[in-house]
């Protein structure tokens, strides 16, 4: 029997084997598992500060983005012992989430065909104390005109948060909209931060009711942009900066500056595995802890 080819990646003093490196994960683009590992290894210095200490939900596509999707919370027993875990309470028991603190873990998760990393808003050791808020600006469609609505809402939300003496940062999602992320001190629990986020969203929707809504039910939105704050609850997750999305073209969720929000070239999928590292090197968030 022919031995299956592997690809060895050296990461932080460890050697991680990428099984089936020639497996095509993005068929329209010819992007393989080895290509994905190369991207994540290169982006790791920029991405790991956004991952460290946070329980993760892992979006895995073992047969590529055209095959079944697995949303993994619990860490399998066969993961290496050097992969950090976080035991999280849930109703009736616990979940052992994976935590990605280093490049070797990142490479192991890529070997498991993890394409997208979804992170908690809090860290292990302070699970009840979120240190960020996420406003997901979710348009009703996926056209250039729809993204103009996203752009306008991001400006409006930014101005409101500025008035509240907060320091929001922006991120394209690699899907359709933007995330507006607010770093927090971690002094308030999830109920408090979610209530605050809901109040902010409702204030914004009242100011522009023709274009913005907080209606959870799609049928009630009437084509308006949804100001989604649901990711701010306990055990809820949001896509991690620099994560690849499981879409044709391999778009990436990328931090942007406020100036880039006004750049007509900016869109939800402007950056991909081909150019996200170039964007990361511009340090678009500066000293912010998004």
TrEMBL record:
Transmembrane segments: none
Annotated DNA ligase D polymerase domain residues: 32-285
A matching Pfam family: LigD_Prim-Pol
Superkingdom of origin: Bacteria
Stored InterPro entries: LigD_pol_dom, NHEJ_LigD
NCBIfam families: ligD_pol (TIGR02778)
Protein name: DNA ligase D polymerase domain-containing protein
Organism of this sequence: Streptomyces pristinaespiralis (strain ATCC 25486 / DSM 40338 / CBS 914.69 / JCM 4507 / KCC S-0507 / NBRC 13074 / NRRL 2958 / 5647)
């Amino acid at each position: 029997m022919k031995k299956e080819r592997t690809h060895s990646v050296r990461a932080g003093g460890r050697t991680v084997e990428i099984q089936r490196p020639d497996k095509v994960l993005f068929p329209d683009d010819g992007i393989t598992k080895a290509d994905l590992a190369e991207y994540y290894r290169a982006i790791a210095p920029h991405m790991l500060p956004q991952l460290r200490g946070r329980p993760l939900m892992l979006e895995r596509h073992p047969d590529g983005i055209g095959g079944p999707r697995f949303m993994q919370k619990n860490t399998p027993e066969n993961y290496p012992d050097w992969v950090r875990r976080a035991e999280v309470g849930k109703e009736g028991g616990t979940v052992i989430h994976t935590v990605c603190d280093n490049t070797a873990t990142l490479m192991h998760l890529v070997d498991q065909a993890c394409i997208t990393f979804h992170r908690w808003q809090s860290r292990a050791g302070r699970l009840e104390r979120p240190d960020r808020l996420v406003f997901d600006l979710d348009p009703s469609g996926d056209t250039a005109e729809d993204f103009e609505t996203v752009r306008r809402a991001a400006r409006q939300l930014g101005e409101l948060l500025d008035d509240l003496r907060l320091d929001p940062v922006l991120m394209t999602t690699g899907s359709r909209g933007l995330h507006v992320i607010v770093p927090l001190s971690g002094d308030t629990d999830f109920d408090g931060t979610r209530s605050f986020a809901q109040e902010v969203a409702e204030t914004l929707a009242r100011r522009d009711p023709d274009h913005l809504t907080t209606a959870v039910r799609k049928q009630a939105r009437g084509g308006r942009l949804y100001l989604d704050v649901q990711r701010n609850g306990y055990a809820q997750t949001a896509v991690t900066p620099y994560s690849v999305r499981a879409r044709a073209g391999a778009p990436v969720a990328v931090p942007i500056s406020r100036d880039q929000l006004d750049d007509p070239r900016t869109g939800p999928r402007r950056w991909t595995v081909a150019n996200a590292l170039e964007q990361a090197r511009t340090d678009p968030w500066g000293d912010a802890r998004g």
